[in-house]
Each structure stands twice: as structure tokens, then as C-alpha cells.
Amino acid sequence: MIRTENLTKLYQRNTGCSWFHRDIDETVAVDHISLHIKKGEIYGLLGPNGAGKTTLVKMLSTLILPTSGTASVNGYDIIAEPKQVRTSIGLSTGHERSFYFRLSGEQNLEFFGTLSGMKGKILKERTDELLKRVGLYEERKVKFMKYSDGMRKKLSLARALLVDSPVYLFDEPTGGIDPVSAKVIRETIQELSLEGKTVLLTTHDMLEAEELCDRIGILNKGKLIREGTPLALQREIEGKKIVIELQGSPPRAFFSEIENLDYVSRVAVGNPYLEILCEGQADAINEVVRTISTFGVRIKSINVKHPSLEEVFTELTREQ
Ligand SMILES: Nc1ncnc2c1ncn2[C@@H]1O[C@H](COP(=O)(O)OP(=O)(O)OP(=O)(O)O)[C@@H](O)[C@H]1O
Ligand SMILES: [Mg+2]
User: How much distance in Å is there from the Cα of 70 to the middle of ligand 1?
Assistant: First the structure.
């Protein structure tokens, strides 16, 4: 549904010039990115500020041209068939300047709906439904210029959802939006995916990415440094943590025995908890439990913790 091949965007900016030379500042915002997002998939782009997420979304939505590489959306080439690409997507970017400031939220939606060929009762019902869904119904008669940042973002999402499209591109759909409305927006995105729509979103919210996305791509300095399901990314970081609650105090030799096990890299002793960092999860748990039982120590509880997506993200972007 969305396919990119070595997609690259180089921004060039004049930083000064004289008769003899010109200073040009170059930024490779998106650097040879190749990805394939399947139909019905929710794909999340994560990355630090300036990683290139918005630039990628802008290229896919034909707002800017790539410097090199190719991409297609819904089977249409973003350079050769921009019109078809635009009619295939619902787009919501973070900074909306395209609304009419003197029109109300409702009038804005009606205007864009009319442009897309909707009219009459169908248009009215659709705008009402969307204004309710994003939590703007009460403020529907208020002029856009009086909307807060969050309200503007909500209207931009409502506009993206106005027309039924096979592909949706959302740049930080819940950034700056209150928690209750953000939850509704996440649910709406999930519904889109259940209807078979393809969604590409960017977010800084790791829990949102974990909860919502089928796959995640981590961008850093324009490069796609990792890609996978949230769980696969979490498993990538070595050192799973096993937290064991013991009954009674084991002898001193017990701790060194556990520390010497092959899979175990570190043991932190608390009372009554024992924290064990290890690799090769299933084998490690079996070996640890077997060793504990040879000492006749009883286990009250055992818990295996994966690193959070936030820990994975921090680790991977720091590595770079
Ligand atoms: N119009 C522009 N002209 C020059 N450089 C730009 C322009 N837009 C973005 N950049 C640069 O391109 C890089 C990527 O920016 P981009 O906005 O795509 O990042 P982002 O991942 O969306 O960041 P954020 O999380 O802050 O939204 C940054 O270094 C940025 O300074
Ligand atoms: Mg951005």
C-alpha cells in the first residue's frame, strides 16, 4: 500500500553569499529510506526531533518532492501520479495553515467536504459525526481563529477522516491533545485498520506506539535504524529481567552459584527479591529455578520483564 525505495530528501539553504562564493547549508532530512507498509497495517514512525518523520510524510502526501528515490501510495507513484496519490489519502499534519480562519470549524469541514464532492444531508451527517468523534461538537460554531492548538489538531483529523480513503497519514495525531480525546482518536485509528485501511502515523508517545501499531520504524538522523513489531523490538534489547521473590534467606553460596550460570549477566540481591539480568529467556529461567531448588530455597513468585519500548528507543537512538 505504501512503498518507498531509497527515498531521500536533501534540504538546501543559503546561509550567505558574496560575489565570490555562496554558503549552502545542507541537511539530509530523509536518507535512503526503503519501507513497505501492507494493506490494513498501522505503521508507527518514531524518532527524535528532527529525525525526518514529517519530511517523509510530506513526500508521501506529495506536499514536497523527494531529492532522489521513489515511492508509491495505493499503487500510484508520488512523482508521476500526484493527483491519484492525493485522492488516495486522508492527511493530517501537525501544523495546519490551510483552514479558513474566519470560518467556524463546522464551516471549514463543510467547505472541504464540498471540495471533495460531498453535499446535502450526507455532508451534514458526516461533519456532525466527525465533530462529535473528535470532541469538537460543542465548539463547532466557533471561528477557527479562536481555536486552541489542540482544537485545531482535532479539526485537522476530522478533515482527514471526511472522505473514505484507503490510506491515512497522520503526523503526531495525538500530540497536544487532551487524554480523553486522544483515546478516542486512537480508537478511531484502530477502527480504520479494522476496516482494512492502511495507516502511517508518527508519534513521540511510546505507549501509544506500543498499543496501536502493528509495526514500528525507528528513524534517526534521516535513517531507518530499526523496524519491527513492538514486541520484536523489545526482544532485541538483550538482558531480560527476571524478578524472583524468595521465601526465607538463602545461604551466601547460593548467590555466587546463580551469578556463575551461563545465561546470567548480573544479579541484584534485595530482600526478599532477587533481580536477575539474563539472556536466552526460557533456558535462563529453567536454569535459575533448577539452581534455586537445589539449595532448597522456596520461590514465592517469579516475574519476567521485557524492556519497555521507551527503553528500546532510548538505547537504539543513543547507540547511533
Ligand atoms: N523546510 C526546511 N528547510 C530546511 N531544513 C528543513 C526543513 N524542514 C525540515 N528541515 C530539517 O530536516 C530535518 C528533519 O525534519 P523533520 O521536520 O522531518 O523532523 P521530525 O522527525 O518530523 O521532527 P519532530 O519530531 O520535531 O517533528 C531537520 O534537521 C530539520 O531541521
Ligand atoms: Mg515532525
Answer: 20
Which CATH superfamily does the domain covering 2-234 fall into? P-loop containing nucleotide triphosphate hydrolases (3.40.50.300)
Could you tell me where in the chain the CATH 3.30.70.100 domains are found?
238-319
Q: What are 158's three cell numbers? A: 476530522
CA 218, 216, 318 angle in degrees (round to 5)? 25
Distance from the alpha carbon of residue 71 to the mean position of ligand 1, in angstroms? 19
Grade residue 29 by pLDDT with cuts at 50, 70 and 90. very high
The finding on whether 50 has its CB within 6 A of some atom of ligand 1 is yes
pLDDT tens track for 83-131 = 999 999 999 986 667 899 999 999 999 999 998 888 899 999 999 999 9
Cα–ligand 1 centroid distance for 93 (angstroms): 13
CATH fold of the domain at 238-319 = Alpha-Beta Plaits (3.30.70)
CA distance 114 to 98: 15
CA distance 227 to 253: 43
Atom 24 in ligand 1: residue holding the nearest Cα: 49
Ligand 1 atom index nearest CA of 172: 27
Q: For 213-224, what is each residue's pLDDT tens digit? A: 999 999 999 999
With the most atoms of ligand 1 within 8 angstroms of its CB, the residue from 7, 9, 10, 11 to mutate is 11
Give ranges for CATH 3.40.50.300 in the chain: 2-234
Q: Which atom of ligand 1 is nearest to the CA of 54?
A: 22
pTM assigned to the model: 0.81
Say if CB 99 and CB 144 are below 8 A apart: yes
> Strand 215-220 vs strand 198-202: parallel, antiparallel, or unpaired?
unpaired
